[in-house]
Specification:
The complex is a heterodimer of chains A (about 250) and B (about 260). Chain A is α/β, with parallel strands linked by helices and about 250 residues long. Chain A has 2 domains: about 170 residues, P-loop containing nucleotide triphosphate hydrolases (Rossmann fold, 3-Layer(aba) Sandwich), CATH 3.40.50.300; about 70 residues, no CATH class. Chain A is about 35% helix and about 25% strand. In chain A, a hairpin with a 2-residue loop joins strand 9 and strand 10. In chain A, helix 3 crosses helix 4 and helix 4 packs across helix 5. The longest helix of chain A has 18 residues. By secondary structure, chain B is mainly alpha-helical. Chain B has 2 domains: about 30 residues; about 220 residues, no CATH class. Chain B contains 9 helices and no strands. Helices cover about 85% and strands about 0% of the residues of chain B. In chain B, helix 3 runs parallel beside helix 6, helix 4 packs antiparallel against helix 9 and helix 6 packs across helix 8. Classes of the chains: A alpha/beta (about 250), B mainly alpha (about 260). Chains A and B meet through helix 2, strand 6 and helix 3 of A and helix 5 of B.
């Protein structure tokens, strides 16, 4: 379980997080929403130790990671994977090599075993036969799929998704969402997603949390979240169109 | 008072920056000696910094040796000492011009590319991706480049010196008519081991400066295209200035 307690973060004089308290349920899909520049990605990066809070604590099970560094932090990170906004594929490596990268570098895996696992993941994300291509030759959607394959290949317990559908058209965005949900249901990892895609996220998330003015103002199941009476939250989620969506995963 | 405050703030920022640069270097070397050892990465960087800089280094060395011989010949002729042309060219190349010019060429060709490559990796979150995979970017990206700089620049300087001396011979012997025996005899009698040793020491130092500064500037690039452009410019300018300053300090210590 990931737990943030009183997390504060400033960049220069600009406060971004101002006392975030958040507990992420295990094995569920939790989505964090909030306005542009509200600090959602910053919050996500605190969970994996890419950023350290000025104050507060970040717990991953029984390990407080906010002051860890080096090997001890890496030991915790081995349980994580992250899909970045732009997929963050290594430009100089092919799709196959990108997906194989953590296997070769972390598990020191070689030969046919690598090929088998990479091909399997590429198939799962719908990129069969695309392994030889380089990231520059892929469309936005394919890059996200390749990034997802790389995130899945180590079979992590927790996957962080930083706006995985940014820059994609609605159909592609839906296909990426569907893929993430399918993978999460199949492998049961804890998924934490930062997204702007309202109302779609209510149909795919178990839990939804809203970040506003540097704090989590509401965390609830997707269905409860939509029923909130807070006028500011209602206004925010109504902008996306239909408020109530069928198929929320926890009601 | 306001000006003193600003001066103080500027000084504190500079000192902090220097501290961060030093820590960056030390932590990268610390990661170098920890397993897994990235021999393949080091060879790849050595190929990029060393082998792929050979052409520009050979070209620069050839013309430097040639112009040195041309200038040296007309200066020495005033004193009737044309026979010393070989020693003048060889000592200038081995002691000064070889290490400095080869390092400047590496800065321009490989150093700027290193900054741009690492900077783009920073902007597109590829460095963060390494971190999330529990792979230390300093170990995977930076340390191999530092080693390649320290090994590659001395090898290029050796090539630079040899080609430069042959370039001098081409002009001095073949164009200006100095005796071939006198030229090479002068080279042999003038160059001592301590000259070569000094050149090697300088080239190792310059190799470290180039790879260190260029990696650092790329690693801490600000998150924009403009930031990347500034980082690349700063890396080239700072490396070049430090090479020249370092050259003066090392020369004064070695003489």
């Amino acid at each position: 379980m990931i737990k943030l307690m009183g997390v504060e973060k400033k960049f220069g004089d600009q406060p971004v997080l101002q006392g975030v308290d958040l507990t992420i349920p295990v094995g569920k899909m939790t989505t964090i929403i909030g306005g542009s520049g509200s600090g959602k990605s910053v919050l996500l990066k605190h969970m994996i130790g890419l950023l350290q809070p000025d104050r507060g604590e970040v717990w991953v099970d029984d390990v407080e990671i906010s002051r860890l560094s080096g090997t001890r932090l890496n030991d915790v990170r081995k349980r994580f994977a992250m899909l970045f906004q732009g997929a963050a594929l290594f430009d100089s490596l092919s799709v196959f090599e990108n997906v194989a990268f953590p296997l070769r570098e972390k598990l020191r895996m070689k030969g046919p075993e690598v090929v088998q696992r990479v091909e399997e993941k590429l198939k799962e994300v719908g990129l069969t036969g695309m392994g030889h291509k380089f990231p520059a030759e892929l469309s936005g959607g394919m890059r996200k799929r390749a990034g997802l394959a790389r995130a899945l290949v180590m079979e992590p317990e927790i996957i962080l998704f930083d706006e995985p559908t940014t820059g994609l058209d609605p159909l592609l965005a839906k296909s990426i969402h569907d893929l993430i949900v399918a993978m999460q249901r199949r492998f049961g990892f804890t998924a934490i997603m930062v997204s702007h895609e309202i109302p779609e996220i209510f149909g795919i998330s178990d839990w939804v949390a809203m970040l506003r003015k540097g704090k989590i103002v509401l965390m609830a199941t997707a269905a409860e979240f939509q029923r909130t009476t807070d006028p500011e939250i209602q206004e925010f989620i109504s902008v996306g169109g239909t408020v109530a969506l069928p198929g929320s995963r926890i009601d | 008072m306001h000006m003193i405050e600003r001066l103080g703030a500027w000084a504190v920022t500079r000192v902090r920056e220097m501290g961060r640069m030093l820590l960056f270097l030390l932590s990268s070397f610390t990661w170098l000696v920890r397993p897994p050892f990235r021999f393949h990465q080091i060879m790849k960087q050595l190929h990029f910094i060393g082998y792929r800089s050979t052409f520009v280094v050979v070209l620069t060395a050839g013309f430097t040796g040639m112009v040195l011989a041309l200038q040296g010949y007309y200066s020495l002729r005033k004193f009737g000492s044309e026979g010393l042309l070989g020693s003048a060219v060889a000592l200038s190349m081995i002691r000064e011009l070889g290490p400095v010019l080869a390092a400047l060429m590496v800065t321009a060709r490989a150093g700027s590319a290193m900054t741009a490559e690492i900077g783009i990796m920073r902007i597109t979150e590829q460095i963060d991706a390494l971190d999330t995979m529990a792979i230390n970017p300093r170990q995977y990206l930076i340390a191999p480049k530092l080693v390649a700089g320290v090994l590659g620049v001395p090898l290029l300087v050796a090539i630079f010196d040899v080609v430069g001396i042959y370039g001098g011979s081409l002009v001095g012997v073949d164009l200006l008519g100095i005796s071939e025996g006198a030229y090479w005899n002068s080279v042999e009698s003038a160059v001592e081991w301590k000259d070569v040793y000094g050149g090697i020491l300088k080239s190792i130092t310059f190799g470290l400066i180039v790879s260190w500064i260029c990696c650092y500037k790329g690693f801490y690039t600000r998150q924009s295209a403009e930031g990347l452009g500034s980082a690349t410019t700063e890396a080239v300018v700072l490396s070049s200035v430090l090479i020249l300053v370092g050259d003066y300090i090392l020369t004064s210590l070695l003489l």
